[in-house]
Amino acid sequence: MSNRGGLEVALHGFSHQRRTNGGELGGLPADQQQELLSQATYFLDSLLGQRPHTFIPPWNSYDDNTLTFLDSLGYQVISSSLCINQSWENAHIQYLPHTVVCEINGEHVNAFDCFEQTFSKLHNEDGVIVFMFHAYDITEDWPLERIDMLLDSISQMDDVHCYTFSEYASLHPVFDKKLMEANMEQNLLSKHLKMKGMIVPLRYAIGVRIVNVLLYIIVTLLLYFFCLKFRCTKSAVCVAMILTAVVFPMVWFRWLTPMKSLLAAMVLAAICAAFVWAITKKRQA
Fold first, then answer.
1. CA distance 45 to 132
2. How confident is the model at residue 279 (pLDDT cuts 50, 70, 90)?
3. Of 26, 114, 212, 260, which shows the fewest CB atoms inside 10 Å?
4. Is 70 exceeded by the pLDDT of residue 105?
5. 47-56, 225-234, 269-278, range with the lowest pLDDT
């Protein structure tokens, strides 16, 4: 099947054993990672007569050393999860993480159910959906015949194109660190637009970020006018402005989510304003 095309065999670690807290490779000493990846690549190559070009890390666990050795072995693509603090540092590797999340409250939901819902919602959008499933997702509800019908209907859509990882990597711009980090931006707007489940183009991700900045400016102005209307002291206004300014980098660098940060800032601003007002009243008395 691999020789006929349309199917790509990827490397999925050496033995699928947890060697570190993270998984098989992430956090493992560099020399051990190099040995495992070299042997695994050799085994697949000797069995298939084809050198693998895509790596899918067991338990989504890898680090900068993993990327370095993958690059030296000729790998072009890594497909992991889209995680905060994931490593995207190697410029020669394309990053195509799986996007269809099949867990709700920590429990696994059938991957094909998740994919069907995600695809029906997003297939008209401009972006890339990467779908992962396991053998146990093929069930009585999702037998091979139904899966075949689903994939066949997708392949016949004019606005949808299906690729192996290597095919996509050779035909499209690099999915690099900048794109991955832009897609990691968690903000109120993207949640409302319900774009979860797809890697969106860089221009869209940056646009979301810009709109997010505008939202903060609006919130800051509303807070300022609120202080004016209720005749807050200058100290209270300064405290509110400082807190709002502190929130922005916390969200920009993903230290906190925007909604929680805004709510926390407003609560803190209200407490500080009340504290300053109480001190002012006491001094006046």
1. 23
2. confident
3. 260
4. no
5. 225-234
